[in-house]
Amino acid sequence: MSIKLAEEMLGARGVSVSAIADIVFQLQHKYHPALTQRQCEDSVRAVLGKREVQYTLFTGIALDELAERKLLPEPLQSILENDEPLYGVDETMALGVTSIYGMIGLTSFGYLDKEKIGVIETLNEKKDGIHVFLDDLVAGIAAAASSRIAHNNPEAARYTTGTD
C-alpha cells in the first residue's frame, strides 16, 4: 500500500490532495499565519501515509463504487443510494481517521461535516455518483491533517515552555 495508490484512488473519484489541502489551509491559517499550501499538502500526504487511513479510504471508496453499480444487498443498497441521514457508518469510519492526531480532529470534523466546504461540498452535491463514504472520509482526512498542523504549531510551545 502506498500514498500514491491512495492519491490515485482519490483522483479517480475527483478528489486531489491539493483540494483537501485547501480545506486544511482554511481550518488552520487563522491560527498559523505563516502556513503555506505546500505544508498543508505535506500534512495531507502524512495522513494518507498511515496504513489505517489507507484501509479506511479503500473500504469507503469500494462501498461507494459498489453502490453505484447496484451490487450491495438490500437494505444497504437503498440506504446508500438515498444517503439515509440516520446511517452513521460513514461518519464512524471518518471519525477513526480524525482521531489519529488527537481530539482536536473531532471538532474539526464536526465543523466540516456541518459546513461542507470545498471539495466536501462538491462531493456531497454530486448527483452522478454515490459519495456517502468519500465526502466524510475527505472531511476526516482534512481534519486529521489540520490537527497534525495544530500539534506542530511552534506557537503552541509557549504554553509548556514558560516563554509567554
Number of helices: 10
Strand content: under 5%
**Global shape:** elongated
Could you tell me the radius of gyration in angstroms? 16 Å
Number of strands: 0
Structural class call reads: mainly alpha
Q: What string, H for helix and E for strand, traces the elements in order?
A: HHHHHHHHHH
Helix content: 55-70%
CA-CA gap between termini: 44 Å
Largest β sheet strand count, sense and barrel closure: none
Write the layout of secondary structure elements.
Elements: H1 3-12, H2 17-28, H3 37-48, H4 51-68, H5 76-81, H6 89-98, H7 104-115, H8 119-125, H9 134-151, H10 158-161
Report on the structure:
The chain has 164 residues and is mostly helical. The chain is 66% helix and 0% strand. The termini are far apart. The relative contact order is 0.19.
